[in-house]
Amino acid sequence: MDHIQQTINEIFHKHLSNREGSPATYIPELAKARPEHFSIVVTTVNGEVFSVGDSEIYFSMQSTSKPFTYGMVLQDLGRVFVMSKVGVEPTGEAFNSIVELEKNTHRPYNPMINSGAIAISSFIRGQSFEDRLTNMKDFFSLFLGRSIGVDENIFESEKNTAHRNRSIAHLLKHFGIIEGKIEDALDLYFKQCSFSLNSLDMSLMAATLANSGINPKTKIRSINKEYVGDILSLMFTCGMYDTSGKWAYSVGIPAKSGVSGAIFGVIPGVMGIAVYSPSINEHGHSVRGVKVFQDLSKELNLSIFRK
Ligand code: GLN
């Protein structure tokens, strides 16, 4: 296991001086992130943790939250309902594409792009908005092993500038995909994107998926085992949006990125990995994060296709 620590140290130092990309600016609060921050954390299914860099720096989950909300709604409402509303096909388009609804059903293609994720948020159960937010927080907190908080500055910043996501939500409402109030669905989506954690937390969430849904630290089941495969297969085919094919080729593990600069990957039965570095590329992925995963995949022989 020293091998893992040594490997992440080497890869960290290899990419430390990389200054390509820049933090996202379309959500103004994200632009305040410090490009020098960088961390790599591995958590095994036995709960061992290997970390290097700024692993205690907090950031917002952004799209790395999408696989978890998808799992929550699948578990609460079942596959038949969820499948009737959101598909499971990759798009080859960017995360915020407006046009990506299927021709006849008008379903978003998958839950990893914004249209699918906003639809999924609209299905979260509860009597009131507050109830639904509490249910979502409680679900995420199981993966984290402690209560998850919302970065309210990020939330407000995204809410006030989300013209594109708002137009997607209106389209979804028009086609009868979204249920309930548009603003509630959007606010729940913005809240999940604003969940605040560090890369130690994120690697534990990833390790919980790697461990068939049981949190390796608390030993508490966070999600039914039967839905873990749904989440991971969607992460694999759609988690990196229009670079999912390249990711499968060059990294070969299920993963999800967020515009805050986080990427997490899951090696089922083995470990979860989180990388944080806020400078992103034109696809919305952390520049260093992509390079770290490519190197880690090679050095630790992680690709499911290259055993
Ligand atoms: N909150 C962001 C948005 O909806 C999430 C996008 C992302 O992380 N790719 O635009």
CATH topology of the largest domain: Beta-lactamase
Q: What's the helix-strand series?
A: HEEEHHHHEHHHEHHHEEEH
Radius of gyration, taken over Cα atoms and rounded to an integer in Å: 18 Å
Gross morphology is globular
Low-confidence stretches: none
Bound chemical compounds: glutamine
Structure description:
The protein is an alpha+beta fold and 307 residues long. It has two domains: 2-62 and 195-300, Beta-lactamase (3-Layer(aba) Sandwich); 65-193, DD-peptidase/beta-lactamase superfamily (Beta-lactamase, 3-Layer(aba) Sandwich). Helix content is 45%, strand content 11%. The strands form two sheets. Strands 2-1-8-7-6 form a five-stranded antiparallel beta sheet. Helix 4 (114-122) crosses helix 8 (182-193) and helix 5 runs parallel beside helix 8. Bound molecules: glutamine. Glutamine binds at residues 62-63, 95-96, 114, 158, 165, 193, 258-259, 284. Residues 62-63, 95-96, 114, 158, 165, 193, 258-259, 284 line the site of glutamine (GLN).
Keywords:
single chain, 307 residues, alpha+beta, Beta-lactamase, 3-stranded antiparallel β-sheet, 8 strands
